[in-house]
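Write out this protein's structure.
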Amino acid sequence: MTSRWWVAVAFTLLPILPAHAAEDQKLFGAEATIPSTRVLRFTSAIDGEPFTLEVRKPFGPPPKDGYSVLYVLDGELYFSIAQFLSYALPGTSPVVVGIGHNALRNKDVIMRYAKSPLKDASKLGVDEAFAAFSNLRVRDFTLPPAPEHRAPIWLGSEGGNIDQFLKVIETEIKPRIAALVPVNAADQALYGHSLGGLAVIRALFTEPNAFRTFIASSPSLWWDGNAVLKGEAAFANQVRSGRTAPKILITAAAGEPDEPPPDRDYLKTLTPDKAAEIAPYAKMSHSWAGMKTGSRALADRLGKISGKTGYKVSYELIPDVDHGSEPRVALIHAMDFAFPR
């Protein structure tokens, strides 16, 4: 996925970002607050990254077994939507945790991860903020692609270490939430969109008992030539043997292109030399798992696995949305699927 594409999508969602108490290093000022929320910040001992957790606690008392929890990847963008939707659930709503890095506001984070030649923090702007956001999410949600699958360096990041990120969630983030509120460890869900959806599928295949529910919204299965699907067979064996029985929701947007990026409209904007350089990669990547067909095929295969009671797979093609606007609808479906009442 190109950095330019992600800047465009994220910029359209900027007005819904949550605001909190004043910070010395914030790039975009804000005064509004969200009731019953708080922010936790820490530097990971695992990967050295600065994490920001936005947490919405339900107003009502905790159930006997503790609160259910929804962990939302790309918290900078989707925490506001998810916490708002959680209010509409009947009964006790879940705790909502947005996982991010404050990469759209904190100048120190932006300077560190934007990979920009700017040295003066006072000159930082939207471009640098979204470059940092994009670089961090690729670092969190992917693995480095095989050499034969690499795009030209100017197209985007070389990849990250998703397994390290999942370890941060399990060993550093979950304990912090459990220390903050009573948590039902048996009823936790993970939501991610696009590259975040890829991360959800990676989590499903590598640690299927870490969450009760996995929600992958338009997952970028194509990354590194469909490499994430290498874990599918081992996961299927665990389901058949009864060692795991998660609930899985996979969604796609009816209006998104089926082929992986770079899309053909973007290719038309390139200079002839860049178009020639990227042509072999584009030809290769467009043969990888489609955003819609790949997601549907995966859901179909997972749904045919015979597992013990509780194992459930659902697929939804959401009409009237494109790739960037899908999360606002997918999160509604995610809430109903993960926390039925």
